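Give me the 3D structure for Mevalonate kinase.
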Amino acid sequence: PHSGARAPGDGAPERPRLGSGGAVATGFPGAMLSEVLLVSAPGKVILHGEHAVVHGKVALAVALNLRTFLRLQPHSYGKVGLNLPNLGIKRAWDMARLQLLDTSFLERAGNTALTPEQVEKLKEAAGFPEDCTDHERLAVLAFLYLYLSICRSQRALPSLDITVWSELPPGAGLGSSAAYSVCLAAAFLTVCEEIPNPLKDGEATGRWTAENLELINKWAFQGERMIHGNPSGVDNAVSTWGGALRYQQGKISSLKRPPALQILLINTKVPRSTKALVAGVRSRLLKFPEIVAPLLTSIDAISLECERVFGEMAAAPTPEHYLVLEELIDMNQHHLNALGVGHASLDQLCQVTMAHGLHSKLTGAGGGGCGITLLRPDLERPEVEATKQALTNCGFDCWETSIGAPGVSMHAAASLDAPVRQALDGL
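Predicted structure for Mevalonate kinase (427 residues):
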């Protein structure tokens, strides 16, 4: 039997298989042929619990309303194209060639990570040029992996062009790769009719059902594995579900109706190694267990208190709630400094915002990277603008955005902002 065949009775359902000869059709399910799909998914920030989460404590991760957008255009000229304008990547593969690949190694891949040999097979299919950067390699592998794995259930691989453009800076700990994987998974599952298109006529935005989101999340996690090897699953879960999630020792649960808080997100642009920072905290814990263990317990308590306040705010937010959130931000920032993951750039960020009466903390690994500043609803516009200007003057990138944003969504073209539409149309 050809290598795509299965031993009888191995329990898996039969499904049509690619690479087993036959005419190369570009057949889409009828309705999908001319339809452009527009999908977006949010990035994420850790609100509380970074570093402590490594030691079994609770972390709160929230969806960041800086989004990654994907445009899927079906066509019939026998190619599959990937365009990533942020990274300057433009690639296309011949359908007939992909159709002939033996993709049987993807059969079982839905639940487990690919072996190094299987990744090599995928790299062969990708046909990387010599001068290919790591960034490009990982982005392309995740794309091909999700495309081949999800679309192999079709009579023939669909011929299509994908453009992905993001408001998220890559490598800043904001979940840009997860948002990319979530968008790809949602688009492929929809185009292959594994899940329905949630967009109703005349609506600007559509969201999938919980059951469909589970499937999107499962595949997005596989895409994240291609990029990160051993991800926690938090980033793709936040990007899929949106809102706020609580994470502890591999268990992820959604917070009911978290408040959509306005924030400044600041990128100090100081590069750092997450691995080195995590190792630093671990060695400090070993060196001073009586000092550092209580700090981690205290950070855990901050996460829990924040979760409790969010619960109260769901009913009726008050000015007092914002004051508590600000205190929690300050205490957590001091704890993170005591753990040794602060940085002069982050101290400067906190001082600048404090001078304007605002409260900030690092988010993510620390040692540079990004910080967040809470914007209370009663703030006057000039105060916010002055703060943004002061941060920009320090050489930082600064975005005004919100957290607790909706998860992966399908959009009507008319509902997207012009700059997003232009970026996706390759202008």
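Residues 1-33 have pLDDT under 50 and may be disordered. Let me know if you want a second pass.
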